[in-house]
Request: fold
Amino acid sequence: MPPQLKRLIPIFIVFIGIFLVIRYFLVPDTFGQYGHYRGKTLDDVSSQEQVHSDKETCILCHDDVQLIIENDAHATLSCLICHGPGLEHTEDPTTENILKESSREFCGKCHNVNAARPLEVVTQVDISEHNTELNCTDCHNPHQVWEGIE
Amino acid sequence: MGGNRIKSSRRNFIKKTVAAAGTIAVSSLLDPINVLVFATDPPEEGPWWGVGIDISQCIGCGMCAKACKMENKVPEEPFYFRTWVEQYTVLNDETVRVESPNGGIDGFEQSVEDEDIFKTFFVPKMCNHCSKSPCTQVCPVGATFESPDGVALVDESYCIGCSYCVQACPYGCRYLHPEKKVADKCTLCYHRIKIGLSPACMEICPTQARIYGDLNDKESELVQFLKDKNWQILKPHMNTGSKLFYNALRAEVR
Reply:
C-alpha cells in the first residue's frame, strides 16, 4: 500500500468517528422504533385536540330526540351536521354554544336540485322557487320532516 | 514475459469476480433484497385501516370538507384541503368538466343545463393512505411515513418543508401549510380513530357515503363493503397500494 494512503487512513477514521458522534446526538430517541421515522410522532399526532363531538355522546342526554328522529327520513344524519361541532356544548351544555342551522341556503346544500344528486338518496326542491318567502323550518321540523304537512 | 503478465492478471480477474459474485449471491440469500423498501405490510395483530367511499351515495353537500377543516384547523383559503368534493359532469359531446368550488364547502351550483348532461356525479377525494405510497418514499429526511396501522402521517417537527411529497402524491392530497411551512395531509383523524370515534368527515356525512374500517378484521364494515360492492381504486396502474376503495367509480374520474 502506498505511504500516502496509509497516512490518510487515520484521518478517515477520525472523520467517521466525528460523524458517528454528531449523528448520535442529532438522531431523536425514538427514530427507527417502527421504521425510518420518529416513533413518538404517532403519540404527537394522536394527541391533537378534538373539535367535533359524536352522535353517541349527543344521545346520552338527548335520547328524546333520538326516539323521534330514528324513524324519520333524517335518521342517518349525525346531529353535528346541523348543530355544529358541539364539543364545547358536551362539556358545558348551554343553549348559547350550540348551532341551529335553519337557513334556506344551509338546507339547500343537500336538498337543492342538482342533476348529480341521486334522487333515491335525497329529496330535492328548487330553493329558488319553493316557497321563497318562508324559511325551511317554518313548515318542516328537521327532526320530523313530514310531520304536520299534508 | 508479456504473455505471462496477461495470463496472471486474467487468473486474478476471474478469481476476484467469482469472489465478488459469490459474496453478493450468498448475502442476498441471507436477506432477500426488498425492492419496495418503503412498502408497509399489514400488521399481524391490530388494525390495518382503509377507507370506502360510495360515489352513488354522495349528494355533494360538502359538509365533509367543512368538518375536516374545522376538526384539523386547515387554513380557510380555498386551496388548502385535506378532503374535498368534485362534481364531474360528462356532457353529451363527451367533454368532461370537473368542478370543485371551494372544495364543495359552499355547496354546488349546477353549471350546465340538464339537457346537455350525459352523466353527472360527485366524487369525494381524500388521502388514499397507500401502503406503497409515493409521497413517503420521496421524503429526504424521514418526516413522512406509513404508520404500523396503515395511516400515512407527517412528523411536523421533522419536516423541512421541501414540498417534494406534495408533488409526488398522484392524488393531489397534500399541501404545504402556509403558517407552519410543513407538509400537511389527512391523518384519517388519527386522534379520533385512536379513541374509537370515526373521522370527522365520516361522522358528519349524512348518507354514510364514506366509511373507514379495519381490513384485518373480516367482520368489519369495510370488509363487508368490499364484499358487496363493485369497487375500484384510483390510478391502479401506479401501484400505490391505495387503501381507498370507491364504489361506482367511473372511468372519467382521475
